[in-house]
From TrEMBL:
This is Efflux RND transporter permease subunit. Keywords: Cell membrane, Membrane, Transmembrane, Transmembrane helix, Transport. The chain crosses the membrane at residues 337-356, 363-385, 397-416, 436-457, 469-495, 516-543, 861-878, 885-905, 911-933, 954-978, 990-1013. Pfam families: ACR_tran. It comes from Polyangium fumosum. SUPFAM superfamilies: Multidrug efflux transporter AcrB pore domain, PN1, PN2, PC1 and PC2 subdomains, Multidrug efflux transporter AcrB TolC docking domain, DN and DC subdomains, Multidrug efflux transporter AcrB transmembrane domain. Belongs to the resistance-nodulation-cell division (RND) (TC 2.A.6) family. The lineage of its organism: Bacteria, Pseudomonadati, Myxococcota, Polyangia, Polyangiales. The keyword Transmembrane helix applies. GO terms for molecular function: monoatomic cation transmembrane transporter activity; xenobiotic transmembrane transporter activity. InterPro entries: AcrB_DN_DC_subdom (IPR027463), Acrflvin-R (IPR001036), CusA-like (IPR004763). It is a multi-pass membrane protein. NCBIfam families: 2A0601. GO terms for cellular component: plasma membrane.
Amino acid sequence: MLSRIVLASIRLRALMLVLFALLLGAGAVAVRALPIDAMPDVSTIQVSVLTSASGLSAVEVERTVTIPVENALNGVPGGTELRSVSRGGLSAVTVVFADGTDVWFARQLVLERLRTVERELPASAGTPELAPVSSGLGEIFQFVVRSSQHSPMQLRTLLDWEIVPKLRGVPGVIEVNTMGGELKQFQVVVDRARLNAQSMSVQDVIEALRTANVNVGGGYVERREESFTVRGQGMLRDEQDIANVVLRADRGGAPVLVKHVADVQIGAALRHGVITHGGEREAVTGIVMMLLGGNSREVVAAVGERVKEIEAELPPGASIEVVYDRADFVGRTISTVLKNLAEGVIVVTIVLALFLGTLRGALAVVLGIPAAMTVAVLGMHAFGVTGDLMSLGAIDFGFLVDGPIVMLEAVIAAVAGQKLAGDARARAYAEAAQGVARPVAFAVAIIMLVYVPLLFLEGIEGKMFRPMALTMACALFGALVYSVLFFPALLVTLVPPAEGHGPRWMEWITARYERIVGHAVALRWPLLGASAVAFVVTTFWFARAGAEFVPRIFEGDAVVTIRRAPSISLDEARRLDLVTEKVLHGFPEVVSTLGMTGRAEVATDPVGNDNTDILVRLRPTEEWKTARDFDELSEVFKEAVEAHVPGTFVSVSQPIEDRTNELISGSRADISIKVVGSDIEELAALGDRIGARVKAIQGAGDVRVERLLGQPVISAVADRARMARYGVRVEDAFTVIAAAREGVRVGDIYEDQRKFDLRVLNPPSEPSAAALGELFVETSRGLRVPLREVVTLAEGDGPSSIRRQDRERTVRVDVNLRGRDLVSWVDEAKVAVARDVPLPTGYRIAWGGQFENFERAQKRLALLVPAVVVLIFGMLLWMFQNARLALAVFMMVPLSLVGGMLGLLARGLPFSLSAAVGFIALGGVAVLNGVVITSEVRRRLSAGEALDVAVTRGATAVVRAVLTTAAVAALGFMPMAVAESAGAEVQRPLATVVIFGMFFGTITTLAVLPGVLRAALAGQRLAARAAEEGQGRAYPQEALGS
């Protein structure tokens, strides 16, 4: 089959060249339409349910809101995990679904379950709402609105009603979350003295405003030929309308109006979050969230253009400043990938020209790269793979040209010294190409096969490495197609027989190798034994070096997270944020800062006043002066902030890393140690003990124990006996409490298309339980009694938040590592915690974070890799029809890994899944080189050469092809190995493994394999059989595979 394809390629070469040009054209079109992002989206499929519960404490939110929602969602089809956070006034419940679940179907399932629980929620709870359909990569753009001529309330109003609606209309944008400034309200602030003078209560004011702020429809009336709609318009329009609402109208007396007992004003809503900018002032911000599965490059570009248009329409003095743009990171990362790929093409071309000694031949080989990449891009479209660091960054063009190199070598050797032209030349080229087509196809197929385990990875690791495997498999398939379909035609067209004797330095190496290989064959057993010992020793050494999931990718920006006491006020947190930002601005690496304390309006991250995230935009690393890398800069930031702002816990992360970790495991840290139990105080104590123990382990950079307790609470407990005595309803008493600070919402005020809350406030004289008790509540007999007479008021501490996983309470100890690999740290920490922190009955520890992904991938690969190994051996056995030869080639695979392990050890890099991909590639190339050498030896045996002569001359004949394939593969990765730009962290281990592995693996193959082949083919009977199989064959390649 392959022989006929090669022959057709040469005979129909004009047609093949046209088809090749069309293929490249299709590739150019496909590349332009390829979705581009920095990283694959590894977020799980999840649906978050957010429920406001105004006035309820964390314990009450858990009991009355979170647990009913959890019960409703428990067992939802496809659900794999259920976790929740309960805070004062907010419940957030998240359902994680199995990979592959359609997100819209998942949301529909959740909505159906929520219908059954809404009636079970307390009256103070809002309607459960679903969080936006976004992901860890969803927050793509953030900006602040600035103006020296507008108040914080005016800026927030401008943001909410002018800017956000326009941005929501951008295709691909699912939500624009807003935060900061002051949310405008129309407020009726009761004056208790004036209210008492009129013998009225707060309930009277609330009821009057609710009934006065209405519109009604009266149907329609007909008059002659026309119909008139009847409308009753009583909606309040402004402060004057509100002030003139009638509270009471006595006969013969003047009516009592709202303005007689209260002050009507425009005020700010009670805030749950604040934004600071640059360490100088408050700000308002908008966070643009992309729809799950969107094309970030296109969406960010569209948002950027729309922001420019909106800015031009803003009032004088107002402007928009971009503080985070995903396009920056995407651009830097893709630039790294494209730069490395471009440099790889140049290096491969130079190496080919130097090793082959023919520029035309090198050009014909290099043309296989765009052909293979075209097939790869078409495959990425077919499989829904985005172009990113993982899918494109692992491609080594050296692997894609191995087949053409071997075929070119065969043709050059076959026609060397001959004067051929016309049909004779075409026949000679065809016979030589046909002779190696089958082993080349087998070798490339085996290289494709070694990537199969990556296709079966699950979870986060599958989402990261499956696109890489698919892209590489498609590229290799394209390289195979090019080798047998287009390359023969290009060979006849571009490479005349006169070219290709090879450079003199290569002839010198070949001559020297021919002498050395004879000695290597004679010393085959000592060499094989030494190689085996080297493999065992290196593996033992390497196994103790540590491992991690994937290297940390530097995104170019930082997130400095500040954790403080749960009792801190929002104003104090704002003051400390400004101080912290000024400290950060003292570093020359910092361009700008944006502090976010508390939660936004759409609480995708349900935190309190004790949590601040400061987004820090950094200068390019080449301009850094304080630190050499991000880990060092993180330590410097942490030390400086903790020194200037005592009582804070500081950790440093990155925007995408931070958000992705939060969505995946509910934690933003590298490692999350979860203690599961029932009693909050016991959980808090265990968390403190575990945190203190793991903090002492080398490599623990940031250790934070979740604060469960310490939230001051003013509680008001209904005294039902006294209420009955006075005739006070619980609803009336608690309405007074609700109006004390947040206010009771009684309607809306419309200003054109804008809508604002109308609230009644009855603030106490001071923020204390005693002052709250002096507020009056009306009895059923029209009397007014102090609130303290019907409720029991007390001040104390309670939980600030309650975290649950799979319907059980948990406390979390978060750890970020510095200067140590993930797996060895976790192994040591597990032993230390189990030994030093005994757990009470009914409590247990769950370890989560990135190491969990690594362990899952490790277990998966432990099953898949042996299966693929057996399959590869089976293919070799099928190809050679000889178990000894198959085993001889297969033995080169483990020996080729020695160099990769030494490379990681030499550069101080831990083993990771990125490095594993490099080892996979090494194994494939080892098989390719083994097949090439073995096929040539068998060909010579079939031609009648003696065994020793066939082995030495066969290995010598293909040494240039073996060295060339190794050189282009290794040097093609050199730009990745030395790159320092964005995303290079993931490519570095892979490139290191391939470069070092190719160097040592090629030497091992050329030195050890000929001797092993000599032993495998020893004996007249086997040699005679090999020669007999070659008799009467039409083409040499049939003997090679017989």
